[in-house]
């Protein structure tokens, strides 16, 4: 039997049919498309030895890959996650995997390479301003500085009809307001770093966002009609706009702030609430296409890795990155006056909801710098929420210009 098979292969003529050529062409196209869609890799392997890095949502997906990459480059990683058990498990996995890649250099056989990596989990629920305040206060009490803050955690396809405990639409608070507050609270420690970096994660969806100049936070009565897709897009546009304006506020300081999109990424938990992903048959049909046209989590993390580690970006701030390069973003995302309006309304809204106070002279900044939060009692949380504040202001007549 084997002899007959060998004889058939020896006598086979690959040019007698087009099928081998067609198959080779198809494989080549698939490989080419997959390579293009996977995006660029971080173009450097720079070390960030002993730098203190905070990664929100670092227990899975892009956050996990980002945390592992930065830990491997010498960073001291803090995983800020709502699921503390999953975060602790992720920290253990990161240290174990990095330790397995690191050869022993000590003569002591009991020396564990994993002990060289500092990765720990902390509880942070962006649905709760109280939790954000507690996390920031604990972090600043334990560390003398923070070098890198990556606001990676986010949600999509959440129930827009069920608000957070602070009374806001869930996409808006988890994707934007919570990270905004966390960033402001940690600014004093970021300024103590030789070169503090803030990285905000947006999404391609920001280009489809609906936003009202008179109510950029969309806290008016019509916001409750948002579909989850629209709410997600709006929150990510807010992230981009706030990044642009915060960069202007931090001009002249040692802190830079930039925004990036990971692209279309599969293998994360973002689609767990998607109605399309609820049926097994749909998953089976769509998976090959997702594999072909979407990045995996490691590929999606590359842009943020570059923003956190590349010394060439030391003076770059207020930019939007895609595939490790500066990209223009949407027209609304470049609107200077809209960015200012959103930033100011955000500060004003958080002042009314969380009892934060603004110290304009503490950091020598031009307008709205450090925010100090005094968490209100639980009974006051509902009564003091004023979502419509600022929504009735008249639109400014001044001409709106793109951000410089």
UniProtKB/TrEMBL annotation:
InterPro entries: NAD(P)-bd_dom_sf (IPR036291), SDR_fam (IPR002347). The keyword Protease does not apply. Signal peptide: none annotated. Keywords: Oxidoreductase. Residues 361-404 are annotated as: Disordered. It holds the Pfam family adh_short. It comes from the Eukaryota. The keyword S-adenosyl-L-methionine does not apply. Residues 361-373, 384-404 have a biased composition (Basic and acidic residues). GO terms for molecular function: oxidoreductase activity. Belongs to the short-chain dehydrogenases/reductases (SDR) family. PANTHER family: PHOSPHATIDYLINOSITOL-GLYCAN BIOSYNTHESIS CLASS F PROTEIN (PTHR43157:SF31), PHOSPHATIDYLINOSITOL-GLYCAN BIOSYNTHESIS CLASS F PROTEIN-RELATED (PTHR43157). This is Uncharacterized protein. The lineage of its organism: Eukaryota, Metazoa, Ecdysozoa, Arthropoda, Hexapoda. The gene is Dana\GF18120.
């Amino acid at each position: 039997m084997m002899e007959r098979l060998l004889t058939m292969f020896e006598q086979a003529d690959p040019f007698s049919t087009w099928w081998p050529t067609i198959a080779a062409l198809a494989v080549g196209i698939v490989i080419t498309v997959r390579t293009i869609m996977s995006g660029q890799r971080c173009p450097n392997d720079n070390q960030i030895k002993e730098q203190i890095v905070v990664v929100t949502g670092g227990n899975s997906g892009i956050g996990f890959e980002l945390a592992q990459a930065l830990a491997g480059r010498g960073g001291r990683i803090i995983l800020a996650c709502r699921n503390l058990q999953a975060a602790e498990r992720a920290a253990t996995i990161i240290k174990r995997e990095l330790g397995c890649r690191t050869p022993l250099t000590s003569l002591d056989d009991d020396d564990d390479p994993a002990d060289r990596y500092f990765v720990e989990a902390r509880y942070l629920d962006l649905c709760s301003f109280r939790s954000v305040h507690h996390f920031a206060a604990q972090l600043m009490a334990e560390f003398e500085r923070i070098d890198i803050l990556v606001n990676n955690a986010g949600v999509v396809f959440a129930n827009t009809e069920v608000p957070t405990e602070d009374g806001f639409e869930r996409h808006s608070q988890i994707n934007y307001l919570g990270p905004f507050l966390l960033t402001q609270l940690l600014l004093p420690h970021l300024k103590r770093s030789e070169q503090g970096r803030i990285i905000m994660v947006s999404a391609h969806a920001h280009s489809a966002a609906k936003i009202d100049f008179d109510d950029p936070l969309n806290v008016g009565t019509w916001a409750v009609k948002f579909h989850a897709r629209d709410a997600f897009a709006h929150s990510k546009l807010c992230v981009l706009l706030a990044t642009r304006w915060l960069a202007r506020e931090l001009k002249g300081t040692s802190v830079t702030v930039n925004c990036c999109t990971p692209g279309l990424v599969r293998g994360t938990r973002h689609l767990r609430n998607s109605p399309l992903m609820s049926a097994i048959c749909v998953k089976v049909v769509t998976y090959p296409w997702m594999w072909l046209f979407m990045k995996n989590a490691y590929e999606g993390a590359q842009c943020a890795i570059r923003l956190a580690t590349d010394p060439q970006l030391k003076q770059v701030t207020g930019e939007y990155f895609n595939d490790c390069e500066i990209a223009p973003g949407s027209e609304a995302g470049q609107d200077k006056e809209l960015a200012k309006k959103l930033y100011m309304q955000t500060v004003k809204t958080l002042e009314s909801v969380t009892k934060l106070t603004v110290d304009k002279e503490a950091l020598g900044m031009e307008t709205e710098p450090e925010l100090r939060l005094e968490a209100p009692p639980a009974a006051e949380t509902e009564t003091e929420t004023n979502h419509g504040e600022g929504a009735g202001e008249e639109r400014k007549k001044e001409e709106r210009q793109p951000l410089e």
